[in-house]
Every structure is written in structure tokens, then in C-alpha cells.
Write a structure and sequence with these properties.
- The complex is a heterodimer.
- Chain A is built from eight helices and no strands.
- The longest helix of chain A is centred in the first third of the chain and has 21 residues.
- Chain B contains five helices and nine strands.
- In chain B, strand 8 and strand 9 form a beta hairpin.
């Protein structure tokens, strides 16, 4: 398919970048809840492109409503999403966007400090570590995790909730060894 | 329920359709104003856990087989032998190592579980429950980020290992060590 992109379209403005930077994690969460891997990334990119297009078209007059507008885009695209990567090129053509408007907004998010995370994870129990690994690395569902650990799916949910809370609290404190 | 728990329920499909609609409206409204910190934390954690597993440092305590696999992974891995004695030991941490794997020999026959406590002087600094081990190894292996080992330089650590047996839990080793950065 041949695609024509208007090369004179302006680069993303700082306001566009900032709004997309803020909304990108929510859009990714929306996508990840429904899709996997590359399909989720494609979906998130399409939503952000459409959002920038709407901003440029003046369809978001009240920026305080941008979150609701972005959610509307998500829901609309989810109801009628194209599974082809061509969608992105079509959107770029439609809105005259020559480059991804929020470079970095859908890149892999920043990571937590490795040494600090190691310090915190090491203080979790074996089941909590197993649940985190299965959730984030193996991408297993709760029923699958539960079967592996010999607990219920509800137990897995509770274990993960506690582990997430413990890790966030721990990451807000200095590394254990540095507290003397 | 905390913001992080609600996000987890949302992502893991533990909400009803009605709850999802209301949650998404709240989430996107907060995200647009930069008031949804749980999103960034969750994303960073997920990415960091994946990287740590691939790097071999998600489980701080590993088996001998896992230690060998990590050592062969291409990272600069420093291996260290600790003696099973309460006498003070000095650990030389290389300035440029990516990871440090310490081996501590100990009889693990009949051990059902191992907990590790680290003390700074008399103060309990950290508890590592249910650490991984293979009783057949006859040793415990600690795989530590080089950055973390270097940050601990000068820290005099007293480490106590508690083993859980069928008939109870008891301390099976105490290690006193201080690390210095070399190279």
C-alpha cells in the first residue's frame, strides 16, 4: 500500500508531548488489558496519534477533558480496531503527522534502579516472588499461577496486591544496607 | 483499596464491566493531569522484573546450576568463596563487575527452608525469607548486582542463616563480613 505523508506537517508541540506523556501509561494499560504484546503497542500508538490529530483539529477545546477524550478514542478504537500496522500510516496521512508525536511516550518505560529493586525483592517471601515473576515475566493468568503454587486464584490476587504495596513502600525508602 | 490494587484488578480482569467503565474514566482523568503515579510505578516494575529475570538477579539466592548459567551469560560475573566461620572476612568487590556470586558452603541435609537475616551491628537490617537453594549443592549461592555490592562497601554485615527442619527452625550459620572495592 502506498502512503503519502504531508512532509510540512509540524512536529509535536511541547504541550502535545506533555499531554501524551501523561496519558500514554493509561492508554497502554487500557491496551494491555485487552491485547497482548505488539498488538497492544500498536493500539496505544494509534490512540495517541488520534489524540494529537484531535488536538490539532481543535476538537479538544477544554484540555481538562483530555483524559475523557482519550478514553473515548480508546473505546472507539477497541470497538473497531484494525489489526494491521497500516492503520498507523493511515492515521499519519489523515492528520498530516509526519513523525510519531510523542517520541518516547510509548517506548519501554523507564526502569526502577536495579540494585534497589534487588534489595526490595529479596525481602519478599517465595510465593510473592513467584507471583511477581509469573505475572510480569511469564505473563501467566491468575488461574495458571494459582495451579502452579497450589493456591486459589483469589490467593494469587491478594499475594500480588501485598507484594506490589510492599515493593512500592520499600522503593520509597533507602536501600536497606545504606541505613546504618 | 489502594490505587495500585485497583490498577492490578483492572489489568488482571478482576473488575466487573461496570467497575471497568467507572475506573477507566477516573484513571484517564487522573492520568491527563499527571495524578496517576501508580501507572508509572506498575510499568517500571513490570519492565524491571522482566529485565531482572533475564539478567539472573530476580532471585537473589540461586542454585549452583543457576549460578553457572549466570556466569556463562556474558555479563562480567565475579565469583567469591566465603568461609563457613563466624570470623570476620573481607570481601573484595571488583570495581567493574556486573554481578557478584558468593558461595557459602553449608550442610543442607534435611533443610526444608532457609531464611537469612542481615544485621548492622545489633540492628536487624533486612530479612530475606524463603531463599532459594538446592540441598544437593552443599552450599548457598548469593547472586548480587555489582552496584549493590559496591554500595555496601565498608558495611560490616552480620548474616545469620536459619534453617527450617521437620522438627523446627534453628540458626545454622553466622557470617561476619565487610566488603571493599578493588581494581
Amino acid at each position: 500500500m502506498s502512503v503519502t505523508v504531508e512532509v510540512s506537517a509540524p512536529a509535536p508541540t511541547p504541550d502535545e508531548r506533555e499531554l501524551c506523556r501523561r496519558l500514554a501509561p493509561a492508554v497502554r494499560a487500557f491496551a494491555q488489558r485487552r491485547l497482548r504484546g505488539a498488538a497492544a503497542e500498536d493500539f496505544a500508538q494509534d490512540v495517541l496519534l488520534t489524540l494529537v490529530g484531535a488536538l490539532r483539529a481543535g476538537r479538544i477545546e477544554d484540555v481538562s477533558k483530555a483524559g475523557a477524550f482519550a478514553l473515548g478514542i480508546c473505546r472507539h478504537l477497541a470497538a473497531d480496531r484494525a489489526r494491521s500496522r497500516d492503520r498507523r500510516r493511515e492515521l499519519m496521512e489523515r492528520y498530516g503527522v509526519t513523525e510519531l508525536p510523542v517520541e518516547g511516550a510509548w517506548e519501554e518505560p523507564a526502569v526502577l534502579p536495579r540494585d534497589h529493586l534487588e534489595d526490595c525483592v529479596s525481602q519478599l517471601g517465595a510465593k510473592a516472588r513467584a507471583v511477581l515473576r509469573a505475572t510480569f515475566y511469564d505473563d501467566d493468568g491468575d488461574a495458571e499461577i494459582a495451579a502452579g503454587l497450589g493456591v486459589t486464584a483469589q490467593n494469587v490476587r491478594v499475594i500480588r496486591h501485598r507484594a506490589l504495596a510492599t515493593l512500592r513502600e520499600c522503593m520509597d525508602r533507602p536501600i536497606s544496607w545504606s541505613v546504618r | 483499596m489502594s490505587d495500585l490494587e485497583r490498577l492490578d484488578d483492572y489489568l488482571r480482569g478482576a473488575m466487573t464491566d461496570g467497575e471497568v467503565d467507572a475506573y477507566e474514566e477516573d484513571l484517564f482523568a487522573r492520568a491527563a493531569t499527571g495524578d496517576a503515579p501508580e501507572l508509572a510505578f506498575r510499568e517500571r516494575l513490570a519492565t524491571s522484573v522482566r529485565l531482572a529475570v533475564e539478567r539472573g538477579t530476580f532471585e537473589v539466592h540461586v542454585t549452583a546450576a543457576e549460578a553457572d548459567r549466570i556466569a556463562a551469560s556474558g555479563l562480567k560475573v565475579q565469583r567469591l568463596e566465603l568461609a563457613n566461620t563466624p570470623e570476620m572476612q573481607t570481601c573484595a568487590v571488583e570495581r567493574d563487575c556486573d554481578l557478584m556470586i558468593s558461595r557459602f558452603p553449608i550442610d543442607l541435609t534435611g533443610v526444608r527452608g532457609l531464611d537469612v537475616e542481615i544485621y548492622a551491628g545489633d540492628r536487624l537490617s533486612k530479612v530475606m525469607p524463603d531463599v532459594s537453594f538446592d540441598a544437593n549443592d552443599g552450599a548457598v549461592f548469593l547472586c548480587c548486582e555489582g552496584e549493590l555490592a559496591r554500595k555496601a562497601a565498608g558495611f560490616v554485615a552480620r548474616t545469620k542463616l536459619y534453617a527450617r527442619y521437620d522438627d523446627g527452625r534453628r540458626m545454622v550459620a553466622e557470617i561476619n563480613a565487610v566488603s571493599v572495592v578493588v581494581g
